[in-house]
Amino acid sequence: MKKTILVALALISAWPCAAQKNPFKWWKSLRSAPARAAEVTPAYRVVQGKILHSVRPVVPARQLELEKFVARSVNPTPVQDLVFSTTPGISQTAAFEQRYLETMEKFKQFKKEVDPFLYYRLKEPKNSGLPPQESRLLFPLVANMEKSLLRLGAVIDTKEDEPLAFALEYVARVRDELAPVLKGMSGAAIYFSRADRTFVGNEFYLHEPEFKRWTGMLRRGQAVRQADKLPAGLRVAVLNDRESVLENMTASHKKGVFIRGGKLDCFERADDLISAVRAGRKYDVILTDIIVHGGGGYYLTNVLRIDGYQGAIIALSAFERDDSMGMEMFECGFDGMLNLPVGFEYSPFWAADVMRGLNKYFYLRQLNHWQR
């Protein structure tokens, strides 16, 4: 009993004078200062029956963000240690490595310029406003940097590349300060998402590189089977400046193979196709080469989308799969891409390959309810 009384007297003597005079008022003042109470968190330990007090400081969240984002330097991954999202060819590997080094170097310069802005924003009271003119000036720079990093992340595995993952997180944090209304949204959803769909590499690229073709003796049979799966009365336009491509497509169509039961118009110049659409010709699908003398696929797509064309525009190109390039094409208004080698029109399988890609597009469009 005597021991208990001594402990009680010791605790009372340890109270501040204000607490001894009015303990309820002292408790109320403590409760009314959550910020001060949050700065230190009392911890208790019992050692051999004695209560020991210790004070453990808690670092504010925004201070942690300063250390995480501003105080950190970025060292890109050595190119020999890069992990790719897909398996690139030899020429692509060198191009992707160079793109990685250039993009990360641009990010380091970007971070150097933006760090002061983020530093002072994190030092300011939470939810403090930002002048609209400052946001309008900075947001395009942040958006361009984030899009470049996202395109890089389409070919480099961000889960295996910590510097790239940090760069994406950093830019997203700056974007949150400039445009709080976008907070919580992914960059891909902001920049590479359309009203009809979001970019997905395996859906945008319509060819099947591992597809096992039938024997040459049955090649016409498989082409006809693919043609019969296409929507009835499909109206297709083709833009390509190689005569051999247009001649082979036209001949196959007349034989009842390519776009069997549908309509096919071929054009050598983009302006002729644009004029035909503006004159009222209706096309469900446009197949276009990317590089065409006098205006290729990008030019055609930009003009037609501005005009309000709602049909599918699919690129036929010898370029290998490159999701960063695919994201740019998707942003421009393309709906898909088929990888076909140079001289594909001389292959016995070209008609089946193209129509198989078209069938994949229509299947995905129906499955995912894509609609412009």
Write up what this structure looks like.
Mean pLDDT is 82; it is low at 5-12, 14-41 and 212-218. α12 (243-254) links the parallel β3 (235-239) and β4 (263-267). The chain has helices at residues 2-14, 17-21, 23-31, 34-39, 61-70, 90-123, 132-153, 162-178, 187-191, 201-204, 219-229, 243-254, 270-278, 297-307, 323-332, 350-368, and strands at 40-47, 50-57, 235-239, 263-267, 285-288, 312-317, 336-339. It is an alpha/beta fold. The strands form two sheets. It has a five-stranded parallel β-sheet with strand order 4-3-5-6-7, sandwiched between helices. A two-stranded antiparallel ribbon has the order 1-2. The protein is built from 16 helices and seven strands. α6 packs antiparallel against α7 (132-153) and α7 crosses α15 (323-332). The longest helix is centred in the N-terminal third of the chain and has 34 residues, at 90-123.
Summarize the structure.
The protein is an alpha/beta fold and 372 residues long.
Keyphrases for this structure?
372 residues, alpha/beta
Quaternary state of this entry equals: single chain
The strand line-up of the biggest sheet is: 4-3-5-6-7
Query: In terms of structural class, how would the helical and strand content be classed?
Result: alpha/beta
**What distance lies between the first and last C-alpha atoms, to the nearest angstrom?**
83 Å
Strand runs, count: 7
Note the total helix count: 16
| SSE succession | HHHHEEHHHHHHHEHEHEHEHEH
Uncertain segments: 5-12, 14-41, 212-218
What profile does the largest beta sheet have?
5 strands, parallel
Helix content: 40-55%
- Report strand %: 5-15%
Which shape, going by the Cα principal axes?
Answer: elongated
Q: Any idea what the radius of gyration is?
A: 32 Å
Mean pLDDT figure: 82
